[in-house]
Structures are given as structure tokens and as C-alpha cells.
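Lecture notes, part 5. Sequence design as translation. It can be helpful to think of inverse folding as translation between two languages: the language of shapes and the language of residues. The source text, in C-alpha cells, appears below.
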């Protein structure tokens, strides 16, 4: 059974940055907003 209300998933490439002692995956919020609001899709980092 399909969910007709489900959003398509769109992958967003991330950068790996060192923040303090932790390695973090980061991406600009403008790319997340473009997918979520412009494409009306679910961003996946």
C-alpha cells in the first residue's frame, strides 16, 4: 500500500568538519531549505 502524501527523498552532500574534538557533517541551511521548500521534498543529509 502506498502513501500518496509521502514526500520524495533528496540526498544533500555534506562536508566533514572538525568542531572542537568532534568530527561533524555540515551543510548550508540554504540547500536544506531549497529542497524542503523549493522542491517540496524531504532533505536527507
Amino acid at each position: 500500500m502506498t502513501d500518496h502524501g509521502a514526500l520524495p527523498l533528496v540526498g544533500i552532500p555534506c562536508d566533514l568538519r572538525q568542531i572542537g574534538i568532534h568530527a561533524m557533517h555540515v551543510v548550508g541551511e540554504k540547500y536544506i531549505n531549497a529542497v524542503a521548500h523549493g522542491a517540496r521534498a524531504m532533505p536527507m543529509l
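The translated text above is only one of many valid answers, since several sequences can fold into similar shapes. The chain has one domain: 10-44.
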